[in-house]
Amino acid sequence: MEKGFVELRKLGYKLPDVSGFKERHMTALGHAWEAQKLSSATLQNRISVFRVFAEWIGKRGMIRDAIYYVKNTESVARQLAAKTDKTWAAQQKSLAEKLEELRKKDPYVAMQLELQRAFGLRMKEAALLRPNPADKVDYLAIAWGTKGGRDRVVRIETDYQKDALVRAKALLLVGDGPMIPANYSFKQWRNHYYYVCRKCGISRKEGITSHGLRHERLNEIYTQITGKRSPIKGGGVNKQSVEEVNLDKVARQEVAEVAGHSRSSIANAYLGSNFGGTR
User: Fold this and answer.
1) What pLDDT was estimated at residue 231?
2) I need a surface site. Which of 126, 147, 185, 198 has the fewest CB within 10 A?
3) Could you read off the pLDDT of 95-115 as tens digits, one per residue?
4) In degrees rounded to 5, what are phi and psi of residue 265?
5) Which residues in 214-224 are b (16+ Cβ under 10 Å) and which e?
6) What is the rounded CA–CA span in Å between residue 105 and residue 167?
7) Which residue has the higher pLDDT, 263 or 84?
8) How far apart are CA 119 and CA 215, in angstroms?
9) Burial, 243: exposed, middle or buried (Cβ in 10 Å; 0-12, 13-18, 19+)?
10) Three-state SS at 24
11) Do residues 146 and 128 touch, judged by C-beta distance below 8 A?
């Protein structure tokens, strides 16, 4: 974000105070970044950072969708629908097969992978989760390490989720602490975490990643609601059936919310799309 303000000065905008940031400044930055031919993902992410910043300075809702800050909307069009199944099941692998080896190398890494599988968490969310204060009996409060600072709740529904939480709490040395040992910063832990994963055959090279466990849970939710496999798994709904189409919409909204997104279309990135299209 700091680089954005430096760039604004280069563009001739001199803000005496960051609280003076306005939508016209976002437009100027968006046009400048577009001219630099940055990728759609980079443009979206940079604008998203300023959207969060606007909330910090009391201007919630000022920064709109990225399409308003570029000249050509194709500059920020991102293909969201998954084209390949990233779940472990698609590679005929399961977390249960890896757990013994993982626990021997680092029980905290093993537990965080289980939390990702159980609740559809991101790696950072699982690492920074404080299971004792987060456990609200009926739901898990996700308030640490979330993307864009968006807190959310995830319902606690399955026996596996309940068991994973019990074991996560038992592992902690500090009752209200996170799932990272106290002698690590998050940056140090992230490096260690992925090192352990690689040693245990969890990497893109091996065809499975820890993020694939998040995909696993989100696809599971879709099936629980619709009774069908997701499109990325060769399933999907009958477009001629109003009931099935409505169930699909409900499932996608639930998947998006569990994943920590506000738009149901984001679910396409995990489930594939029945109807195609880009956003």
Assistant:
1) 94
2) 185
3) 999 999 999 999 999 999 999
4) -65, -25
5) bbbbbbbbbee
6) 17
7) 84
8) 10
9) exposed
10) helix
11) no
Rounded Cα–Cα distance for residues 173 and 76 (Å): 45
Residues in the chain: 279
What does the alpha-carbon distance between residue 82 and residue 124 come to, in Å, rounded to a whole number?
22
What pLDDT score was predicted for residue 168?
A: 97
How far is residue 179's CA from residue 191's CA, in Å, rounded to a whole number? 15
pLDDT given for residue 276 in this prediction? 41
Contacting residues for 92 by C-beta, under 8 A, at least 6 apart:
none
Coarse DSSP helix, strand, coil percentages of the chain, rounded to the nearest 5 percent: 60, 5, 35
Q: What is the pLDDT of residues 252-270, one digit of tens each?
A: 999 999 999 867 778 888 9
How does 130-163 read in b/e, with b if 16+ C-beta sit within 10 Å?
bbeebbeeeebebbbbbeeeeebebebeeeebee
Structure tokens at 95: 């977390």
Query: CA triplet 266, 90, 161: central angle to 5 degrees?
Result: 70
Cβ atoms of 157 and 85 closer than 8 Å? no
Segment 2-42, tens digit of pLDDT: 889 999 999 999 888 889 999 999 999 999 999 999 888 88
Q: How far is CA 69 from CA 23, 55, 64, 66, 73, in A?
A: 9, 18, 9, 6, 9
